[in-house]
């Protein structure tokens, strides 16, 4: 009588994979990631340098004092003024409007007073349709006379608007929610009074000029 053969189990013929292999692999991966992350944080921290920042708002044209400054540590800010150079900043003039927390760079300050000789500073607030969005300190604009709000005027007036200032520099600009843009302009002294009068009458609009001027 033939002997009965027992069915072959495929499971007994294959090598057993340790049940904890997946857990070990996960633990090793976690450790590697933790080491890499710690190295990244260390690198970021080691790249930081103490630089000067603004502690209190400083309007364009104002003299910067020690109380206006604070020291923070940052990395990767091109042109940031090192805290060790604070003596070169204190007593200088803000070339543009400065706000809380802003990191100082050399182009934001000047040794010359603002406005300079032959210049005047004019403040104005314009609705969105009368000033380009996104104006920033240093931008150059053309100041033109426009009809007051609600006045349709005539085609002749609209086709040949009066230029009040062919070149004015934005010293500060701030968007006011629901109320347009508040600006400070540096204009040539001969036209400052006329520009101010048109501003008061609500008859000013701005056109942004090319950064390098028209060729």
Automatic annotation (TrEMBL):
<feature type="domain" description="SAF">
    <location>
        <begin position="49"/>
        <end position="110"/>
    </location>
</feature>
<keyword id="KW-0812">Transmembrane</keyword>
<dbReference type="InterPro" id="IPR013974">
    <property type="entry name" value="SAF"/>
</dbReference>
<keyword id="KW-1133">Transmembrane helix</keyword>
<keyword id="KW-0472">Membrane</keyword>
<dbReference type="Pfam" id="PF08666">
    <property type="entry name" value="SAF"/>
</dbReference>
<protein>
    <recommendedName>
        <fullName>SAF domain-containing protein</fullName>
    </recommendedName>
</protein>
<feature type="transmembrane region" description="Helical">
    <location>
        <begin position="21"/>
        <end position="42"/>
    </location>
</feature>
């Amino acid at each position: 009588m033939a002997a009965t053969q027992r069915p072959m189990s495929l499971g007994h013929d294959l090598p057993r994979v340790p049940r904890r292999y997946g857990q070990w692999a996960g633990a090793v991966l976690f450790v590697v990631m933790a080491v890499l992350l710690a190295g990244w944080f260390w690198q970021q921290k080691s790249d930081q340098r103490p630089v000067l920042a603004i502690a209190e708002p400083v309007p364009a044209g104002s003299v910067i004092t020690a109380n206006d400054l604070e020291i923070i540590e940052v990395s990767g800010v091109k042109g940031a003024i090192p805290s060790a150079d604070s003596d070169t900043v204190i007593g200088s003039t803000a070339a543009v409007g400065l706000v809380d927390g802003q990191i100082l760079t050399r182009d934001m300050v000047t040794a010359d007073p603002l406005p300079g000789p032959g210049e005047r500073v004019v403040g104005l607030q314009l609705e969105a349709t009368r000033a380009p969005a996104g104006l920033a300190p240093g931008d150059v604009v053309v100041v033109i006379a426009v009809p007051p709000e609600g006045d349709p005027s005539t085609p002749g007036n609209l086709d040949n608007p009066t230029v009040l200032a062919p070149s004015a520099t934005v010293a500060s600009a701030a968007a006011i929610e629901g109320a347009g843009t508040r600006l400070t302009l540096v204009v040539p002294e001969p036209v400052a009074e006329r520009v101010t009068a048109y501003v008061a009458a609500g008859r000013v609009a701005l056109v942004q000029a090319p950064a390098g001027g028209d060729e």
